[in-house]
C-alpha cells in the first residue's frame, strides 16, 4: 500500500495527477446523484427528453475523449488538451449559473460537460507516461491508487451535500460549487502539469493521421478487448441500478439501508485499491481481474438471496474487494492495448465505460422484462464472468498480443 502512495506524493507529475483526479472526483460526486433531479424537477424535462440527453451525452463523451486522445498523441501537446477540457467544465457550469433554463441545461449536459470529461482520460494518460520510468508492478498499483483517489470524494462530498440541502440550500447551488472546483482544476493544470515538450520522459508526436489513428484504435483485436473489459464493469452498473430498488421491495428495509450499504462498499474499496500492488506481487494482472470478477459476481448472485436476512451485510466485503479490482485494474489493461499511444489509451477508457454501462443497461432491461430486479443482479454477475473468461482465453493464446499498440 505504501509504495504507490509514496510515488503519488514524491513524483511531482503523479502528485499533480492525483490532485487533478481528486478534484474531478469532487465534480462527479457533486453532480452525478442530482443530475436527474435537476433535469426533471428543476428544469422541467420529461423522462423521455432526459433519456435523450443521456444518450447524446454518452455519444459526445466518447467522441470527445477519442478526439482529445488522438490530438494529444498526434501533437504531444497534452497540457493544452487537458487545459481546454478543464476550461469546458468552468464554461458549462458557469452557463447554467448565468442562464438557468431548460435550453441551457440541455446544451451543457448533452454537449459541453460530456466533452469536458475527456480530462479524465488525459489524466490517466499522463500518469501512465510518468509511470513508464518505474517497474510494471509499480505502474499498475499506482494507477489503481489514482482510481481510489477518484472514489474518495464520493465518501466525503456526498454527506456534505446532504448537510447543505438539509440546511436549505438550493439544488442550483451545485453549479456554483462546480465552477469553483473546476476553476481550481484549471489552475492546477496551468501551474503544475508538465509543459509540453519538456517532460522527464520522451513524448514525441505519433505522426499518425486521424484516419490511421482511428483504424488503430478501432481494430478488431483492440475493440474486442475494450468491449470485454467493459463487460467486467457492467455488473457494477447493474448494482448501482438495482441497489435502491431491491432494498425498497424488501420487507424491513428502507432508504437508510441503501445509503449505509453503498457507503460501506465505497469506503472499503479505497484501501483495497491502495493495496493493489501487494496483490500484483503474487498474481498476474489478468489473474487478479478474474479474482475480482469472481468475488463481485458472487456478491451479485447472492445479493437477492440474502437481502431479507442479516447476512446481506456480510456481502459488503466481496462487493468491496471485487469492485476495487474490477474498477481499477482494467484501466491499465486497456491503456496497454495502445502501447506508446498514451492519449489513445486514455481515450479508450471512455469507450470501456460506455460499453460497460450499455451492456449493464441491456441486462437490466431484459431481467426487468422477464422476472425482476433480483434476476438483473444474477445476470449481471454472469455477464461479468463471461467477459473475464473471454479475456483470459484471448490473451492466453501465443499470438494474442502481437501487433497491439506497436509504435
From TrEMBL:
PROSITE patterns given in the database record: PROKAR_LIPOPROTEIN
**Keywords of this entry:** Cell membrane, Membrane, Sugar transport, Transmembrane, Transmembrane helix, Transport
The membrane spanning regions, by residue number, are: 49-72, 81-99, 111-131, 143-166, 172-193, 222-247, 259-279, 286-306, 312-334, 346-367, 373-394
How is this protein situated with respect to the membrane? Multi-pass membrane protein
Subcellular location, record wording: Cell membrane
Report the GO terms under cellular component.
Answer: plasma membrane
For this chain, one GO molecular function annotation is: transmembrane transporter activity
- Lineage: superkingdom: Bacteria
Q: Which InterPro entries match?
A: MFS, MFS_trans_sf
Which PANTHER family does the annotation name? SUGAR EFFLUX TRANSPORTER A-RELATED (PTHR23535)
- What's the protein called, per UniProt? Major Facilitator Superfamily protein
Q: Which organism is it from?
A: Roseisalinus antarcticus
Amino acid at each position: 500500500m505504501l509504495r504507490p502512495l509514496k510515488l503519488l506524493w514524491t513524483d511531482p507529475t503523479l502528485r499533480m495527477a492525483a490532485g487533478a483526479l481528486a478534484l474531478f472526483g469532487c465534480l462527479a460526486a457533486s453532480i452525478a446523484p442530482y443530475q436527474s433531479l435537476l433535469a426533471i424537477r428543476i428544469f422541467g424535462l420529461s423522462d423521455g427528453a432526459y433519456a435523450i440527453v443521456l444518450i447524446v451525452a454518452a455519444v459526445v463523451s466518447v467522441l470527445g475523449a477519442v478526439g482529445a486522445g488522438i490530438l494529444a498523441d498526434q501533437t504531444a501537446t497534452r497540457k493544452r488538451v487537458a487545459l481546454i477540457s478543464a476550461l469546458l467544465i468552468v464554461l458549462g457550469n458557469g452557463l447554467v449559473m448565468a442562464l438557468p433554463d431548460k435550453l441551457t441545461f440541455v446544451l451543457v449536459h448533452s454537449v459541453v460537460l460530456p466533452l469536458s470529461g475527456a480530462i479524465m482520460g488525459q489524466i490517466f494518460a499522463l500518469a501512465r507516461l510518468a509511470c513508464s520510468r518505474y517497474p510494471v508492478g509499480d505502474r499498475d498499483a499506482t494507477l489503481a491508487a489514482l482510481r481510489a483517489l477518484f472514489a474518495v470524494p464520493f465518501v466525503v462530498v456526498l454527506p456534505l451535500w446532504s448537510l447543505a440541502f438539509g440546511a436549505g440550500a438550493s439544488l442550483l447551488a451545485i453549479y456554483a460549487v462546480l465552477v469553483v472546483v473546476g476553476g481550481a482544476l484549471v489552475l492546477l493544470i496551468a501551474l503544475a502539469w508538465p509543459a509540453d515538450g519538456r517532460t522527464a520522459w520522451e513524448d514525441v508526436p505519433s505522426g499518425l493521421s486521424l484516419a490511421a489513428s482511428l483504424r488503430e484504435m478501432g481494430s478488431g483485436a483492440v475493440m474486442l478487448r475494450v468491449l470485454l473489459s467493459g463487460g467486467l464493469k457492467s455488473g457494477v452498473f447493474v448494482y448501482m441500478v438495482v441497489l435502491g430498488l431491491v432494498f425498497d421491495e424488501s420487507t424491513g428495509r428502507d432508504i437508510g439501508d441503501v445509503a449505509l450499504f453503498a457507503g460501506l462498499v465505497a469506503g472499503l474499496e479505497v484501501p483495497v485499491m491502495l493495496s493493489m500492488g501487494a496483490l500484483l506481487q503474487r498474481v498476474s494482472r489478468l489473474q487478479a481481474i478474474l479474482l475480482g470478477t469472481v468475488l463481485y459476481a458472487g456478491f451479485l448472485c447472492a445479493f437477492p438471496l440474502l437481502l431479507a436476512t442479516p447476512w446481506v451485510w456480510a456481502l459488503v466485503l466481496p462487493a468491496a474487494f471485487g469492485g476495487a479490482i474490477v474498477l481499477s485494474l482494467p484501466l491499465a489493461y486497456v491503456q496497454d492495448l495502445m502501447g506508446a499511444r498514451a492519449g489513445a489509451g486514455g481515450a479508450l477508457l471512455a469507450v470501456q465505460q460506455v460499453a460497460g454501462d450499455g451492456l449493464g443497461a441491456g441486462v437490466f432491461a431484459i431481467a426487468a422484462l422477464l422476472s425482476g430486479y433480483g434476476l438483473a443482479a444474477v445476470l449481471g454477475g454472469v455477464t461479468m464472468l463471461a467477459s473475464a473468461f473471454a479475456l483470459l482465453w484471448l490473451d492466453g493464446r501465443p499470438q494474442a498480443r502481437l501487433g497491439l499498440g506497436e509504435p
